[in-house]
Amino acid sequence: MTRQEIIDELKQLLEKDVMEIKDEVDRLKIKFYSEESDELEEEFKELLNQYKARRAELAAAEAKKHAENLAHKRAILDEMQKLVEQANADDVMANLPRMRELQATWKSIGAVPPTETQAIRKAYQQCQEQFYDLVKINIELRDLDFKKNLELKTLLCEAAEKLQNNENIVEASRALQQLHDEWTEIGPVARELREDLWNRFKTASTIINKKHQAYFDNLHAKEQENLERKRVLIEQMKQINEPLVNGEPMNAKAWEEATAKVQEVQNAWRKIGFAPKKYNQSVYDEYRAECDRFFATKKEFFIELRERRKEWEQKHKEYLERQKAREERQREREEQRKAFAAKGGDNLRRMHERLKQEVKTAENNILFFTAKSKTANKLVDAMQKKIDDLKQQLAEIEAKMAEE
Q1: What separation in angstroms does the CA of 23 have from each of 13, 19, 94, 110?
Q2: Beta strand residue intervals within 156-261, DSSP E
Q3: How far apart are CA 42 and CA 82, in angstroms?
Q4: Which of 87, 186, 209, 330 has a beta carbon 3.0–4.6 Å from 135's, enabling a disulfide?
């Protein structure tokens, strides 16, 4: 059931009598707060406030009505007591109709404050019995009332005995309480039958009450067991959170493993019923705090991780851009080197051809010189030296051309 479905069901419940939906509201409350908080929580709280306000309003109205009923019943008791005190042989028949009117009015009045219920019923029963016992009404009329009351109370005994077969012990207990209310409203039976009849009714009631007590004993034992199981799960959550408390480093894989463990704990928690009312809210709050601590820390970790990833991506992007720029510059330099090399090769070839031509020219010119004078000899030597220098330059250029 989603949180929205829980809210919709609560809205439908609020259309019913709020005094009859407490158990259902409590069930929805537990289901709702077993999930993580979200934007629906405020709407759910508002519905709960409406429920509490209407319940408080009805309770106040009911308390006021109970007080009014108590005052009304006390007034009836006062008048009934006067009839008992004034009863005599002459006016007993005249008082009997009024007594029955007062009894009918009494039955038509609703409940009184729980703290006054037992006392007011006991006073009423005593007043009835005093009237029937002390006023010495007509025996036949009294026997007729006794017979009618006997029939009614016998039916109540049979109804109480049938309740023993009701598997829903809570429902049976409520029905038994209603039978007890009806018992006290019915007048007395013949004195010699009162004790046996009451013992029969009490015996059937005792069986129901013992089952009811056993049911709640078992329920409380189960709630105590649930409390212990929930405390074990809280300890597991604390163990999962221990690295977080101690500030130990966590990576994404460790968080994934820890999250799986938390989900196992949460699934186990949802399968456990209520703990004792005294501890149910406090143990849930402790569990909720551990879960919140885990998920809040996990959220901070992954926010920081995303920021670091963004930073890494930006640095990687910048690196790729720098690398691309370096490759582009290297490519441009290589192209320039090739272009320069190509241009240099042309120059070397031209220079090589020029030097070859100069050597050839010098060798041709040296043939025109004679060695008959010192001046001619010096010219021949100078020309020969020039030829040697040109050949040296030519050899160097040829070496460079070979290298290129």
Answers
A1: 11, 10, 51, 24
A2: none
A3: 60
A4: 87
* Residue 233: closest CA among 263, 277, 255, 257: 263
Collect the ranges in the chain with pLDDT lower than 70: 1, 35-38, 87-93, 134-141, 336-346, 348, 367-376, 403-404
Instruction: Judge contact between 65 and 19, C-beta under 8 A.
Output: no
Is 140 within 8 Å of 180 (Cβ atoms)?
no
224-231 contact pairs (CB < 8 A, 24+): 224/275, 224/276, 226/272, 226/273, 226/274, 226/275, 227/275, 227/276, 227/279, 227/283, 229/268, 229/272, 230/269, 230/272, 230/275, 230/283, 230/284, 230/287, 231/283
Q: What is the pLDDT of residue 261?
A: 92
Report which residue type is found at 316: H
pLDDT number for residue 312: 87
Inter-residue contact 173 to 196 (CB < 8 Å): no
At residue 320, the 3 state secondary structure works out as: helix
- Distance, in Å, from the CA atom of 176 to the CA atom of 173, rounded to the nearest integer, reads 5
How far is Cα of residue 128 from the mean position of the Cα atoms in its chain?
A: 58
User: Whose CA is closest to 276, among 235, 236, 231, 232?
Assistant: 231
pLDDT of residue 95: 79
